[in-house]
């Protein structure tokens, strides 16, 4: 496990990306273990946190924001608590895979070559706003998403030519139109400028299609460990019906379908993610998974009222956690196991208490460090009915 702390020129300038950079990695893990035990030990045993083999350069996605500095376009990270852009250093970011840094540098050079004006968020003028870059760690494919304030990009052909001349590894380039005065990076409309408009990557032996807005964990090595534990908690034998709520592009649900579930029902409210989930099922030859486009809470309530009785329910909600109504619906379905994958330990602790009110007790917790050098922590947990002895 790598513990040496490299130097970062942005740390002194209040970059908020690595708030734990000055803390030895073993101490980071110990602090995360204490936090998990403080939150969860009163409910069930907490396993030792699974740390990363290498706590640096693990991110497969990067977002850089544009600014005008020294008379030219630059792109980088916001200083903590501000919208002041800190240009990425020549040595790159300590969290991102090096290919992302190289790709961002090439994209910035291409923007300068085309002479596109930088968007001014105070005045609402200018054109280029952000860069989103994705890398498939298994496929090697790289996507560049240029976020602009206009749906027109005069000179886009030259931009692609300049970008691919400097970064021939780029496999697709997408224009995302975001005209709103908002802190959200992506807008709703996309146009492919080069390549297929998506990349693929392999996770847990399955291939996934990643579109510009797809939710996909940024640390693939640690994600595989997290999902492996979640599937172990599910206890699949080949006969189970599984519901995957908040399924995104289908990652956990499709892994369950491939690992032995008889039938998987996924539900996700983002239409593009559902399209990707269905495409991912088809691409992997998985025929025992279906996906619905709906908000998880009303879908779960309706499915419970209509008599759906899955053996296992998988929950992977956003940081805000699940909802009391969804948890009540899960309990009404009476699954033998519930597996909850959380990116917000505080809201998981809240939801553990809600499950207990409905007769479901937490049996085990597994913390996983997906975000070294930060305070974030992922936790997998499984529940069973109080009357279940095992």
Structural class: alpha/beta
Major β-sheet strand ordering: 3-2-1-4-5-6-7
Please compute the radius of gyration using only Cα atoms: 22 Å
- Spans of at least 5 consecutive residues whose pLDDT stays below 50 are none
- Percentage of helical residues? 25-40%
Tally of DSSP β-strands: 16
Instruction: Tell me the fraction of residues in β-strands, as a range.
Output: 25-35%
Number of helices: 9
Helix/strand order, N-terminal first: HEEEHEEHEEEEHEHEHEHEHEHEE
Mean pLDDT, to the nearest integer, reads 93
Q: Rough shape?
A: globular
Major sheet characteristics? 7 strands, mixed
For the record, give the distance between the C-alpha atoms at the N and C termini, rounded to a whole number. 35 Å
Description:
- By secondary structure, the chain is of the alpha/beta class.
- The chain has nine helices and 16 strands.
- The chain has helices at residues 25-40, 98-114, 156-166, 220-234, 251-259, 271-283, 296-305, 324-333, 345-357; strands at 61-69, 72-78, 85-87, 128-135, 142-148, 170-177, 189-194, 199-203, 206-210, 241-245, 263-268, 289-293, 312-315, 337-342, 360-368, 378-385.
- The strands form three sheets. The chain has a seven-stranded mixed β-sheet, covered by helices on one side. The protein has a seven-stranded mixed β-sheet with strand order 12-11-10-13-14-16-15, with helices on both faces. The protein has a two-stranded antiparallel sheet with strand order 8-9.
- The model has no long low-confidence stretch (mean pLDDT 93).
């Amino acid at each position: 496990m790598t513990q040496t702390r490299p130097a970062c020129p942005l740390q002194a300038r209040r970059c908020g990306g690595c708030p734990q950079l000055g803390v030895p990695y073993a101490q980071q893990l110990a602090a995360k273990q204490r936090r998990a035990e403080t939150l969860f030990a009163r409910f069930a045993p907490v396993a030792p946190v699974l740390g990363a083999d290498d706590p640096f350069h693990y991110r497969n996605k990067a977002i850089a924001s544009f600014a005008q500095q020294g008379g030219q376009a630059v792109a980088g990270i916001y200083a903590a608590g501000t919208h002041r852009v800190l240009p990425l250093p020549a040595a790159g970011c300590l969290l991102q895979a090096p290919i992302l840094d190289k790709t961002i540098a090439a994209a910035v050079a291409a923007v300068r070559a085309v002479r596109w004006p930088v968007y001014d968020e105070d005045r609402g003028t200018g054109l280029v706003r952000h860069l989103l870059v994705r890398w498939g760690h298994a496929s090697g494919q790289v996507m560049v998403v240029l976020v602009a304030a206009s749906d027109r990009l005069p000179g886009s052909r030259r931009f692609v030519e300049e970008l691919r001349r400097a970064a021939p590894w780029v496999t697709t380039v997408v224009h995302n139109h975001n005209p709103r005065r908002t802190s959200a990076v992506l807008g709703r409309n996309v146009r492919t400028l080069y390549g297929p408009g998506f990349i693929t990557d392999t996770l847990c032996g399955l291939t996934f299609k990643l579109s510009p807005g797809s939710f996909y964990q940024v640390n693939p090595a640690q994600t595989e460990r997290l999902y492996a534990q979640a599937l172990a908690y599910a206890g699949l034998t080949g006969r189970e019906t599984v519901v995957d709520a908040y399924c995104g592009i289908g990652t956990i649900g499709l892994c369950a379908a491939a690992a032995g579930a008889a039938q998987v029902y996924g539900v996700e409210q983002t239409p593009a993610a559902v399209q990707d989930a269905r495409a991912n099922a088809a691409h992997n030859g998985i025929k025992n998974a279906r996906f619905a486009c709906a908000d998880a809470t009303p879908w779960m309530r309706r499915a419970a009222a209509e008599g759906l009785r899955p053996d296992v329910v998988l929950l992977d909600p956003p940081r805000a956690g699940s909802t009391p109504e969804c948890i009540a619906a899960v309990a009404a379905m009476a699954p033998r196991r519930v597996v909850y994958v959380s990116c917000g330990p505080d809201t998981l602790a809240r939801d553990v208490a809600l499950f207990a009110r409905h007769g479901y007790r937490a049996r085990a917790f597994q913390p996983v460090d997906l975000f070294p050098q930060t305070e974030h922590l992922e936790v997998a947990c499984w529940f069973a009915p109080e009357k279940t002895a095992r």
